[in-house]
């Protein structure tokens, strides 16, 4: 709060310190202004990973839209279909997150209150599309997202995704008229949601396969999309194996006591400095929390210092790991172990299934783009035996835009990948739980 008055409430006192309240901080969701006010929100600005890679294009007419509908974030790109140029971009946090940070929470909410999440996401994306289109006529809108996002947007029944074996009969792509979605646009473009692969592996991973060229590679490649819903693929031109793991929101700062997304005020890098730790804060301001890449760095450095052991336990009677005004407690380390254990166990099983001993590893998503490989290796998230490890950016968005710009080959590309891709349900594999427990160890 820069100017004006918004009275402090009990909810604010429960979350903010007396010093923060005195400095003018308020919870916007609980604030009631009395008269004119001026607020500053840039401290909480969040960087959402987009993609501006130049792509091959089959010249068309007019404009199209590529959308990455993520569990946590939304990205909408307006694309010139003749040149392939990105004309405008809008990003946002997924408003469904208020009803659950992960996909299973949203599935449960949808079962209890059907239609709420569908209306919310359609309205949000419709507003974003209208904003970037700015009265331009649109030829087509193409959307990628995981299976739960697909079902919620398309109005499909999520009940099959609420229990083992997590198989839905409604994985096909869907096409809508913009007016049926109640989108207020200057034209009536077709709105297409790309098909899912299986289980919780959606069209976001399918688009990732397109973007990374795994389906055209002579040698095995591996793709890890390290988000709230962790998706894994290993393959080459002849075959692809894929799976999903419930990594949870820890990699994006969720369920971490002082966790936050990667934005101003977030600790995004931690390194050992003698017998202590040195932290880097996005924006150079005072630390207000820690994001996923900082969490992995902090755990790796704490292992080196002996502040935590390989079982993830704080040592020496410590109650927390101090990090420039914020800290990590025992429950934070456990959340990291759960997320890391799920991803690593899934990767190991897929690699073994494929006989791929040292695949080149591509890390997708915002977290995968910023994690330091050496820290990932130190805690055992990145396999020591993995070959070359590289960040791949927002592969879901890039692959969707590639498909948008190659309409004559799109169906063949998608159908070919689906035909060669086999989904493996990790929960049905007896050794997965054993591998999961084993891979929770740090190191």
Spell out the blueprint of helices and strands:
Blueprint: H1 10-15, H2 18-22, E1 63-69, E2 73-80, E3 86-93, H3 103-112, H4 116-133, E4 138-145, H5 147-154, E5 174-177, E6 190-193, H6 203-212, E7 221-225, E8 230-235, E9 240-245, E10 266-273, E11 276-281, E12 289-290, H7 292-305, E13 320-323, E14 326-329, H8 330-354, E15 360-364, H9 365-370, H10 373-379, E16 389-393, H11 395-404, H12 407-420, E17 421-423, H13 430-439
Parallel strand pairs: 1-4, 4-6, 7-15, 9-17, 10-12, 15-16
Antiparallel strand pairs: 1-2, 2-3, 5-6, 7-8, 8-9, 10-11, 13-14
Helix pairs in contact: 6-11, 7-10, 8-13
Describe the structure.
With 443 residues, the protein is an alpha/beta fold. It has a domain at 10-40. Helix content is 32%, strand content 21%. The protein has a six-stranded mixed sheet, sandwiched between helices. Strands 16-15-7-8-9-17 form a six-stranded mixed sheet, with helices on both faces. Strands 11-10-12 form a three-stranded mixed sheet. The longest helix is centred in the C-terminal third of the chain and has 25 residues, at 330-354. The model has no long low-confidence stretch (mean pLDDT 91).
């Amino acid at each position: 709060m820069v100017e004006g008055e918004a009275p402090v409430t009990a909810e604010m006192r429960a979350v903010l310190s007396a010093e923060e309240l005195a400095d003018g901080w308020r919870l916007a969701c609980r604030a009631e202004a009395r008269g004119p006010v001026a607020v500053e929100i840039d401290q909480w600005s969040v960087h959402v990973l987009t993609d501006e890679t130049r792509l091959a294009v089959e010249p068309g007419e007019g404009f199209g839209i590529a959308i990455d509908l993520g569990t946590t974030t939304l990205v909408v790109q307006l694309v010139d279909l003749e040149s392939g140029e990105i004309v405008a971009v809008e990003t946002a946090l997924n408003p469904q997150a208020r009803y659950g940070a992960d996909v299973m929470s949203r599935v449960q909410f949808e079962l209890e209150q059907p239609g709420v999440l569908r209306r919310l996401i359609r309205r949000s994306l419709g507003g974003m599309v209208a904003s970037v289109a700015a009265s331009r006529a649109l030829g087509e809108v193409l959307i990628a997202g995981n299976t739960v996002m697909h079902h919620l947007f398309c109005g499909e029944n999520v009940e099959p995704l609420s229990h083992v074996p997590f198989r839905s009969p409604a994985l096909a792509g869907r096409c809508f008229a913009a007016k049926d979605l109640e989108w207020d646009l200057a034209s009536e473009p077709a709105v297409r949601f790309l098909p899912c692969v299986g289980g919780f592996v959606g069209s976001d991973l399918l688009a990732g396969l397109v973007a990374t060229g795994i389906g055209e590679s002579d040698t095995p490649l591996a793709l890890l999309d390290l988000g709230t819903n962790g998706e894994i693929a290993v393959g080459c031109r002849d075959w692809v194996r894929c799976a999903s793991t419930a990594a949870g929101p820890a990699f994006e700062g969720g369920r971490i006591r002082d966790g936050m997304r990667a934005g101003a005020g977030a600790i995004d890098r931690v390194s050992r400095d003698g017998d202590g730790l040195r932290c880097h804060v996005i924006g150079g301001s005072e630390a207000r929390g820690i994001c996923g890449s900082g969490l992995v760095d902090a755990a790796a450095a704490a292992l080196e210092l002996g502040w935590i052991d390989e079982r993830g336990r704080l040592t020496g009677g410590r109650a927390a790991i101090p990090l420039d005004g914020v800290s990590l407690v025992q429950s934070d380390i456990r959340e990291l172990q759960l997320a890391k254990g799920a991803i690593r166990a899934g990767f190991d099983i897929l690699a073994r299934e494929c006989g791929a001993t040292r695949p080149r590893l591509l890390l997708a998503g915002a977290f995968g783009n910023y994690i330091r490989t050496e820290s990932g290796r130190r805690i055992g998230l990145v396999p020591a035996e993995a070959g070359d490890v590289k960040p791949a950016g927002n592969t879901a968005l890039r692959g969707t835009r590639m498909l948008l710009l190659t309409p004559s080959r799109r169906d063949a590309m998608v159908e070919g990948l689906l035909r060669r891709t086999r989904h493996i349900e990790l929960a049905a594999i007896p050794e997965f739980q054993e591998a999961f427990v084993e891979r929770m160890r740090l190191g």
